Amino acid sequence: MTTVLKLGGSVVTEKDEPEQVDEVSLARMADAIAAAAVERLVVVHGGGSFGHHHAATHGVSTTEGTHDPAAVADIHGAMKTLNRRVVDVLLSRDVPAVPVHPLSFGARDAAGSLTLPPNAVRTLLDEGFVPVLHGDLVAHAGQGTTVVSGDELVTSLARHLDADRVGMCSTVPGVLDAEDEVIPRIEAFEDVAAALGGSDATDVTGGMAAKVRALLDLGAPAFVFGPDAVDAFLAGADAGTRIEESG
Fold this sequence. Notes:
Layout: E1 2-7, H1 9-12, H2 23-35, E2 40-45, H3 48-58, H4 69-91, E3 97-99, E4 107-108, E5 114-115, H5 119-126, E6 130-134, E7 136-140, E8 144-148, H6 150-160, E9 165-169, E10 185-186, H7 208-216, E11 222-225, H8 230-234, E12 241-243
Parallel strand pairs: 1-2, 1-9, 2-6, 3-6, 4-7, 9-11, 10-12
Antiparallel strand pairs: 4-5, 7-8, 11-12
Helix pairs in contact: 3-4
């Protein structure tokens, strides 16, 4: 059984303060992962105040690229720094975490379609590791490099690895309706389109609407939940909002 877990950038960093890790929240996530009995786990974390801050400064997004090597060094370097912090915290709890950097193997074609070969991640899983990927830059034909979001990585990996469960841990307890109540289940985007908005902080990768659309396209149940529900998700229970296309 393969599980893909995304830790949102707003969960592991102080998203409104450049390059600040939320040490308490990150430790909480690491404790939950260490205590879980998950056979095959892939962790993806967002950019938060590391990647998003530098990407916004350089005007780079998932569609607007850069050929400036200094900009690439700033954005990718910030994400490597955050990734190392996440991996180190997991290692301190005996989780066999290893870093995996999408810039080294991901690419977009001229139309923007992402290719993320899964062989390295699959082999790491087979060898007993917990691969830890992160939002990053990737080579983009005609654009130099563009952002690949953690959400894109999650959906690509979930498809190629035939994931059984996908979890998106955010700072909200689930997908919220117009009254800020958690929607327990989403089976079609049209049912919730009016209630969905974007992120409050600087975010170059899209908000909840884009997340829900992508998760509905997966062939596995996906969940959006807050930090307090990460234990339940890793234990195999429903958590927050369950997103799974009907039929």
